[in-house]
TrEMBL record:
<dbReference type="Pfam" id="PF13966">
    <property type="entry name" value="zf-RVT"/>
</dbReference>
<dbReference type="InterPro" id="IPR026960">
    <property type="entry name" value="RVT-Znf"/>
</dbReference>
<dbReference type="InterPro" id="IPR052929">
    <property type="entry name" value="RNase_H-like_EbsB-rel"/>
</dbReference>
<protein>
    <recommendedName>
        <fullName>Reverse transcriptase zinc-binding domain-containing protein</fullName>
    </recommendedName>
</protein>
<feature type="domain" description="Reverse transcriptase zinc-binding">
    <location>
        <begin position="8"/>
        <end position="73"/>
    </location>
</feature>
Length: 216
């Protein structure tokens, strides 16, 4: 597994017992490469970076998944207290890392399933003009997860409360940096790769998952 400021997050993501597409979604969230209006506006001059649903001035990943009214209501239906939802973060990955220090593996997988449904609902609104109510989003996530649990403190959390801070260092001007993360389990393996330049601009990315026993 590669080193970086959130290396424990990447390891935990590949440990989640959920669909490969939701692992892939979680990986995209961690690297801030979901196509929010803020992300598109950073590479397309004059593009409106506001939220198309609630009218907020800036639609970041954190806003789309946690702060927008529909997503916020869906999280509330999942049992989140207002204090947890209202806590402020700069980036979505920081919020998810804090959550991983409270939830066990199954509860975290259920949460990512709900966020994946929230993101799909956002895209359906933009591209199809259809937005479902928070109750429908919740019911879809609940069905997909088969017994969604948002607050489970009975088992050991995914991440330890003791953290070691590491910082991603940008490459010299004119160079690119390739980060590769991999986690190998007994019967599965997940990996992800991302290429960024010295301005932290994502030039390319990819991920994959294999569900079979690996031999060394």
């Amino acid at each position: 597994m590669g080193y970086g400021p959130h290396r424990l997050f990447w390891k935990a993501i590949w440990m989640l017992n959920t669909l490969p597409k939701i692992r892939g979604f979680s990986w995209h969230v961690g690297y801030k490469i979901l196509s929010t209006n803020f992300k598109i506006a950073s590479i397309r001059h004059g593009f409106d970076k506001g939220c198309p649903r609630c009218g907020a001035k800036v639609e970041t990943q954190l806003h789309a998944l946690k702060e927008c009214s529909t997503s916020r209501e869906a999280l509330s239906l999942g049992g989140w207290s207002e204090s947890i939802i209202a806590k402020k973060y700069d980036y979505c990955i920081d919020w998810l890392e804090d959550v991983m220090r409270v939830l066990d593996k199954k509860a975290m997988a259920n949460l990512m399933t709900l966020l994946w449904n929230c993101w799909n609902n956002r895209n359906n609104y933009i591209f199809r003009g259809k937005e479902e109510k928070a109750t429908v989003i919740w019911e879809k996530a609940n069905t997909l997860s088969n017994d969604f649990r948002i607050c489970n403190l009975l088992k050991e959390p995914l991440l330890s409360l003791n953290t070691e801070v590491k910082k991603w260092e940008k490459p010299p001007k004119g160079f690119v940096k390739i980060n590769f993360d991999i986690t190998v389990g007994v019967n599965s393996m997940g990996y992800g790769v991302i290429v960024r330049d010295n301005d932290d601009f994502v030039l390319g990315s990819g991920w994959g998952f294999m569900d079979n026993r690996m031999s060394l």
